[in-house]
Amino acid sequence: TxxxxxxxVNLVKRVRRFAAGMSVxxxxxxxxxxxxxxxxxxxxxxxxxxxxxxxxxLSAAVGLLIVPVYNAVAPRITALVAxxxxxxxxxxxxxxxQTISVVVMxxxxxxxxxxxxxxxxxxxxxELATGLAPIVAVLAIGSLCHGWxxxxxxxxxxxxxxxxxxxxxxxxxxxxxxATFVLTRLFGGLGAAMAWSFVLIxxxxxxxxxxxxxxxxxxxxxxxxxDIAIPFIGVVVVVGVGRAIIPAPSTPAWASxxxxxxxxxxxxxxxxxxxxxxxxxxxxxxxxxxxxxxxR
Length: 296
Prior knowledge:
Elements: H1 9-14, H2 16-43, H3 46-83, H4 86-103, H5 105-113, H6 115-123, H7 126-158, H8 163-187, H9 189-212, H10 220-245, H11 253-274, H12 276-295
């Protein structure tokens, strides 16, 4: 005989602290992202706020890449934490961060260096593109830093450690609101972008040491240097050279997009070459592919 399912209060009690922490974290994250917009509505003119919103829409392309990477790696990080496999967890943690460096970083850096070109292709208005470009560039770098910070956050959640994320976000709100007010008064929409990106850069600088002091101790230097800094410098050099070679948007638009696609491709190659974990994985995949072809 089958028994009908019933609600078990004990199961809820076992995870109530974690659920409460995640709920509070979600509310604080919403406040972090929405409170500045409420402030900007009061500080900026309608035209300036519209320009800022357009720039934010273009830089949001970076976020569209971050989410699927996070959704792919977070369950694996949780599984490794549950299995208590410290060695494999450390390897996959670095691999996950380098995945952000390969998937997200080339797009962010190209967006930053070629913000005017992409804005012009999108809006077909030189004056508007000129105003959007610096805002897009600053927001793109901030979004990249936010992408990297997702990996320590996934590790925190895997350990059921929600408090540190909430505390960091609260500190970010305390910093962001006055920074947004002051910088927006001084520089308009660009100042708002500077405040937002400054907070995300600060978040990236804080989340690594705070996480690695408790989880995966001793990994901060490797994480910042090998997983982030070295690939970033390489990609910046490659895209910077591309910016020097392609000084102005070409006409027609497809020619500009083709040039940008080429620069992006070179940036991806540079990121893969300088990300040791990703490079080893690519080489292994290629070797296995050759082995299969040889057997055929």
